[in-house]
Specification:
By secondary structure, the protein is α/β, with parallel strands linked by helices. The chain is 39% helix and 13% strand. The chain has an eight-stranded mixed β-sheet with strand order 3-2-1-4-5-6-7-8, with helices on both faces. Strand 1, helix 1 and strand 2 form a beta-alpha-beta unit. The radius of gyration is 17 Å and the shape is globular.
Length: 303
């Protein structure tokens, strides 16, 4: 479907969906929209107080919303494993929406020592998805949604310094992590198709949205409210994720994003994948490195 908006989300009764980073911004708007359409929504967040506040806010408009909190710190593989164990106890899981991420922070590291943007945005997404694939595979039509960015177009993975021990440019490393997200989604689609598992992999990007993700942009963060008038609001930025998660016509491997000028604003539809993102050889290399670094193997052989 072209020009998909929140109004196009169909009833999701009987489905269970997990949204990472769901207490604020795009994740909150995604969780709110899904709850309003009767999905059970698991809010996977670092901070329980913030998650509770988000659930209270959702219930202001959807009093009977079916919500639950899943503790998740995507900067710690141990936390990801514990979160996956909790989700595995759910009666079913239909959609995993990998939304959590960080953008252009100072050089910081995850609990396992990975550069924060690569560790949270890609490796955390890879690990959680890998651990939840068996649960998703129990339901035909299940989906994995991976959030990339238009910034992936300037990404270029530095294979000799993935964790920034030699140099660190925060903007470039953000683009690199978003390239990794899209490469992972495309490779996951290839492997799922070859394996025959009844799970689809979709990607999305929010255009340019005014959210808390901009907190590391210094003085520019104060322009976020104005950007919401010119570019995407958080609600609009959630539309591509909602399309990837719910559009009946979506196919595994699809990538959705804003349809306005340079994919920065507007309703959701098919988005552009860079040539590098579609490089199968590099994607296989990234997959193998991700297994090695996380210690988690999805057991999906190459297509």
């Amino acid at each position: 479907m072209t020009h998909f908006t929140g109004a196009d989300v169909a009833d999701q009764s009987g489905k269970c969906m997990i949204v990472t980073g769901a207490n604020t911004g795009l994740g909150f708007e995604t969780a709110k929209a899904l709850a309003a359409k009767n999905a059970r929504v698991l809010l996977a967040c670092r901070n329980q107080d913030k998650a509770n506040a988000a659930m209270d806010k959702i219930r202001q408009t959807t009093p009977d919303a079916n919500l639950a909190f899943i503790p998740l710190d995507q900067a710690d593989i141990a936390s990801i494993r514990r979160a996956a164990e909790l989700v595995m106890q759910e009666p079913r899981l239909d959609v995993l929406i990998n939304n959590a991420g960080v953008m252009v922070p100072p050089l910081m590291r995850t609990a396992q020592g990975f550069e924060l943007q690569f560790g949270v945005n890609h490796l955390g997404c890879f690990a959680l998805t890998s651990l939840l694939l068996p649960k998703l595979a129990q339901n035909a039509g299940a989906r994995v949604v991976v959030t990339a960015s238009i910034a992936h177009k300037t990404g270029k993975l530095n294979w000799d310094d993935l964790n920034s021990h030699k140099n660190y440019g925060r903007t470039q490393r953000y683009s690199d992590s978003k390239l990794a997200n899209l490469m992972f989604m495309i490779e996951l689609d290839r492997r799922l198709r070859a394996s025959g598992l009844p799970v689809s992999a979709m990607g999305c990007h929010p255009g340019v949205a005014a959210t808390d993700l901009m907190r590391h942009l210094g003085p520019l963060q104060f322009a976020a409210p104005l950007m919401g008038l010119v570019l995407n609001s958080a609600e609009m930025g959630a539309w591509p994720a909602l399309q990837a998660a719910t559009d009946p016509s979506a196919q595994s491997g699809d990538y959705f994003g804003s349809q306005g000028w340079r994919e920065m604003r507007g309703a959701s539809g098919a988005a552009h994948k860079s040539k590098m993102a579609q490089n199968a050889e590099l994607a296989r290399r990234l997959w193998d490195i991700s297994v090695e670094l996380t210690g988690i193997d999805p057991q999906l052989p190459p297509a």
